């Protein structure tokens, strides 16, 4: 008998078995215990005995019937094999002394989860470990009562009787051969069967065969898992091959190795042609570089992605597809494969093109309609002005021209709304954002509507903070939103009703918001109308007289403009007769300049010496007049070189400089030149420019400007900045 500690080197170098056969569960050493005949294991047993300290090698050689040279050679081979598998081989040299090989072998066999049996030359079981007894359901006494073959191996898997003389396990001893990885079906005591993988080897003593050693693995769970995997793969293939999408898989580097049938049906390619990077042949040449570049970039990042591109069919036609690709990770988070799908979106893209064409036609028609409606309004407006001049003394004529004037203004307002809604829908509204005081805009707009509202018996109440409330917005468009909301409230209120306008700032963790509410006590809104209130041309029910008028464009326009500002417009009504509330939310934008303006109202900016550098003569002249009127001393320059000279001459308190200056020195050159001079290192320099994108602001700050203002700039805002920088 032999016991093997370690890994494959011992098995291969000494006994000749591969690790796949001899691997068993040994908690302490992770080893194996094959019981083998002399020709394979004898050397191992002799080598282990020779490892015992103080062993008499000649005596040991005589006991085993071999030469001393053979014992030394086999012991050296064993030590070399052990040293490749254990960190401290010297620690193992005492194994044979500290453990009795027979006792250790018995302990291991009794605790294995694999079935072990020893069968005599008559086929009776002379040893069965607990694992085998549990597998078969027999007791130790029962399993010895008959030939082992008659108990657990008496029929073929197809039900035919299995004669013992045909059984390879029973033939192993008399015919002297090993059985390796034999797959079969064994029977339990209760008649049920279980699949096994077994091995058998004859055991010799003094050169004579005396028994058969049998090793049995119950592979039921492995087969069940394999069958479950097979069914799962079959289901996957069925789904993948019958789905409308193309599907494919790729290795971590992006080389594809599997495609579903839909792919092959469409492309006409074979797997050999498509695998790896062969699928690139289906891409349109105009899109191939972009598609493959995206493919490789996202593969490198290990992130899901999607894109669209055309793919060629086997008939040569191209269709558009949406590609979606996701990584499949292992337990360590590493990408082990990629799974992708391609969805045909040709019809969708065609529909989108049709919608775009229809939208362009609609916009063209609306523009033409507005043009044709404006043309007759121009002479009507001129005629009204003439009547006002000629009929100053006639009250009846004055009243008539006032009515016509209001109707012309109303018509113009409707045309403007119609065009604005069309522009918003097509994304052609360009906002001219600036920092503005929304409180001021709300008050001014409300006051513009006050006379008309109060003339109709409707009271207007304002609740607005006294200090500025700053937002980044298109001032004109914010006024337009407020005007539409007030106009809408006025249409659906009656005498003695009220309209209340409130403004506040709501401080939130995700960003402060300016809240403007327009609340009325008018006719309210039907519940089923609220969800569609912002659709163009949707209106509340009116009678045949249509006394409220309008096209149903004011609220959709207000909502669209609010969203363009990063805000929203929220309607609410408790129902008919309960009034309505519209809440406008816009991002709050406090700034140092805004705060400075607040301080300006409590103090007066001292007279400053200011150099203005700009190549726009009209702007320079107007700014010079305005600043001089405020008591400041101003020196102007039209080029960068002249501006630098003006700074050296005047020694100013501040410099206002354009960026896009003519000549060799632009605005960046001016500020860099001044900052390079220690005398001007802390001189306040403000950029006033038409370049007002985020990138432009970054460049001006990097160049050395203290502030960046986009044109046009108000004198009030400019003085606030100067107050902050110059005190």
From TrEMBL:
<dbReference type="InterPro" id="IPR001789">
    <property type="entry name" value="Sig_transdc_resp-reg_receiver"/>
</dbReference>
<feature type="domain" description="Response regulatory">
    <location>
        <begin position="609"/>
        <end position="726"/>
    </location>
</feature>
<dbReference type="InterPro" id="IPR036097">
    <property type="entry name" value="HisK_dim/P_sf"/>
</dbReference>
<feature type="domain" description="Histidine kinase">
    <location>
        <begin position="368"/>
        <end position="590"/>
    </location>
</feature>
<protein>
    <recommendedName>
        <fullName>histidine kinase</fullName>
        <ecNumber>2.7.13.3</ecNumber>
    </recommendedName>
</protein>
<dbReference type="Pfam" id="PF02518">
    <property type="entry name" value="HATPase_c"/>
</dbReference>
<dbReference type="Pfam" id="PF13426">
    <property type="entry name" value="PAS_9"/>
</dbReference>
<feature type="domain" description="PAS">
    <location>
        <begin position="101"/>
        <end position="176"/>
    </location>
</feature>
<dbReference type="Pfam" id="PF00512">
    <property type="entry name" value="HisKA"/>
</dbReference>
<dbReference type="Pfam" id="PF00072">
    <property type="entry name" value="Response_reg"/>
</dbReference>
<dbReference type="InterPro" id="IPR001610">
    <property type="entry name" value="PAC"/>
</dbReference>
<dbReference type="InterPro" id="IPR035965">
    <property type="entry name" value="PAS-like_dom_sf"/>
</dbReference>
<dbReference type="GO" id="GO:0043565">
    <property type="term" value="F:sequence-specific DNA binding"/>
</dbReference>
<keyword id="KW-0597">Phosphoprotein</keyword>
<dbReference type="InterPro" id="IPR000014">
    <property type="entry name" value="PAS"/>
</dbReference>
<feature type="modified residue" description="4-aspartylphosphate">
    <location>
        <position position="658"/>
    </location>
</feature>
<dbReference type="InterPro" id="IPR005467">
    <property type="entry name" value="His_kinase_dom"/>
</dbReference>
<dbReference type="InterPro" id="IPR004358">
    <property type="entry name" value="Sig_transdc_His_kin-like_C"/>
</dbReference>
<dbReference type="InterPro" id="IPR036890">
    <property type="entry name" value="HATPase_C_sf"/>
</dbReference>
<dbReference type="Pfam" id="PF08447">
    <property type="entry name" value="PAS_3"/>
</dbReference>
<dbReference type="InterPro" id="IPR000700">
    <property type="entry name" value="PAS-assoc_C"/>
</dbReference>
<dbReference type="InterPro" id="IPR010921">
    <property type="entry name" value="Trp_repressor/repl_initiator"/>
</dbReference>
<dbReference type="InterPro" id="IPR003661">
    <property type="entry name" value="HisK_dim/P_dom"/>
</dbReference>
<dbReference type="InterPro" id="IPR011006">
    <property type="entry name" value="CheY-like_superfamily"/>
</dbReference>
<dbReference type="InterPro" id="IPR003594">
    <property type="entry name" value="HATPase_dom"/>
</dbReference>
<feature type="domain" description="PAC">
    <location>
        <begin position="305"/>
        <end position="357"/>
    </location>
</feature>
<dbReference type="GO" id="GO:0000155">
    <property type="term" value="F:phosphorelay sensor kinase activity"/>
</dbReference>
<dbReference type="InterPro" id="IPR013655">
    <property type="entry name" value="PAS_fold_3"/>
</dbReference>
């Amino acid at each position: 008998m032999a016991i093997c500690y370690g890994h494959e080197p011992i098995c291969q170098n000494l006994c000749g078995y591969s690790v796949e056969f001899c691997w068993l569960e040994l908690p302490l050493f992770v080893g194996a215990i094959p019981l083998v005949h002399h020709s394979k294991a004898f050397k191992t047993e002799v080598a282990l005995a020779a490892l015992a300290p103080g062993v008499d090698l000649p005596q040991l050689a005589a006991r085993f019937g071999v030469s001393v040279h053979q014992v030394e050679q086999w012991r050296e081979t064993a030590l070399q094999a052990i040293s490749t598998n254990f960190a401290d081989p010297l620690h193992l040299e005492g194994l044979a002394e500290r453990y009795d090989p027979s006792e250790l072998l018995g302990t291991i066999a009794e605790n294995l989860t694999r079935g072990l049996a020893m069968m005599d030359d008559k086929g009776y079981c002379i040893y069965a470990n607990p694992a085998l007894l549990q597998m078969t359901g027999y007791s130790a006494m029962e399993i010895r009562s008959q030939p082992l073959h008659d108990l657990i191996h008496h029929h073929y898997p197809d039900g035919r009787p299995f004669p013992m003389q045909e059984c390879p396990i029973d033939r192993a001893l008399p015919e002297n051969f090993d059985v390796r990885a034999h797959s079969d079906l064994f029977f339990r005591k209760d008649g049920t069967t279980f699949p096994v993988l077994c091995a058998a080897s004859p055991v010799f003593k003094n050169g004579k065969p005396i028994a058969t050693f049998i090793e049995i693995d119950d592979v039921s769970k492995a087969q069940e898992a394999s069958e479950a995997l097979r069914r799962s793969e079959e289901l996957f293939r069925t789904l993948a091959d019958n789905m409308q999408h193309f599907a494919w898989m790729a290795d971590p580097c992006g080389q594809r190795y599997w495609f579903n049938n839909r792919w092959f049906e469409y492309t006409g390619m074979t797997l050999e042609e498509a695998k790896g990077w062969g699928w690139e042949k289906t891409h349109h040449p105009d899109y191939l570089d972009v598609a493959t570049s995206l493919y490789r970039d996202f593969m490198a990042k290990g992130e899901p992605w999607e894109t669209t591109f055309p793919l060629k069919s086997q008939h040569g036609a191209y269709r558009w597809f949406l590609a979606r690709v996701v990584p499949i990770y292992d337990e360590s988070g590493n990408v082990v494969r990629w799974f992708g799908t391609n969805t045909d979106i040709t019809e969708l893209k065609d529909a989108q093109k049709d919608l775009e064409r229809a939208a362009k036609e609609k916009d063209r028609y609306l523009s033409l309609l507005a043009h044709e409606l404006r043309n007759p309004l121009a002479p009507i407006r001129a005629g009204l002005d003439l009547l006002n001049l000629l009929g100053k003394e006639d009250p009846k004529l004055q009243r008539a021209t006032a009515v016509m004037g209001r109707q012309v203004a109303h018509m113009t307002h409707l045309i403007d709304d119609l065009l604005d809604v069309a522009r918003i829908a097509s994304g052609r509204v360009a906002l001219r954002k600036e920092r503005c005081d929304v409180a001021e805009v709300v008050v001014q707009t409300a006051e513009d509507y006050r006379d008309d509202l109060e003339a109709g018996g409707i009271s207007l109440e304002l609740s607005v903070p006294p200090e500025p409330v700053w937002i980044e917005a298109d001032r004109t468009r914010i006024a337009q939103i407020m005007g539409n909301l007030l106009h809408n409230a006025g249409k659906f209120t009656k005498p003695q009703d009220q309209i209340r306008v409130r403004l506040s700032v709501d401080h939130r963790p995700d960003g402060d918001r300016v809240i403007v509410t327009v609340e009325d006590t008018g006719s309210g809104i039907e519940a089923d109308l609220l969800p569609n209130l912002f659709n163009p041309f949707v209106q509340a029910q009116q009678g045949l007289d249509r006394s409220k008028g309008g096209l149903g464009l004011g609220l959709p326009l207000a909502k669209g403009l609010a969203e363009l500002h990063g805000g929203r417009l929220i309607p609410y009504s408790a129902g008919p007769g309960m009034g309505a509330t519209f809440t406008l939310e816009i991002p709050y934008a406090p700034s140092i300049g805004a705060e400075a303006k607040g301080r300006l109202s409590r103090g007066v900016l001292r007279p400053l010496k200011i150099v203005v550098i700009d190549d726009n003569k009209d702007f320079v002249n107007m700014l010079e007049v305005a600043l001089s009127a405020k008591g400041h001393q101003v020196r102007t320059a039209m080029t960068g070189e002249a501006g630098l000279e003006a700074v050296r001459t005047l020694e100013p308190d501040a410099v206002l400089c354009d960026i896009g200056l003519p000549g060799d020195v632009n605005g960046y050159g001016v500020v860099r030149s001044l900052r390079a001079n220690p005398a001007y290192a802390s001189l306040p320099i403000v950029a006033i420019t038409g370049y007002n994108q985020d990138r432009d602001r970054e460049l001006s700050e990097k160049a050395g400007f203290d502030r960046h203002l986009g044109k046009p700039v108000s004198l009030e805002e400019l003085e606030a900045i100067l107050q902050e920088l110059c005190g």
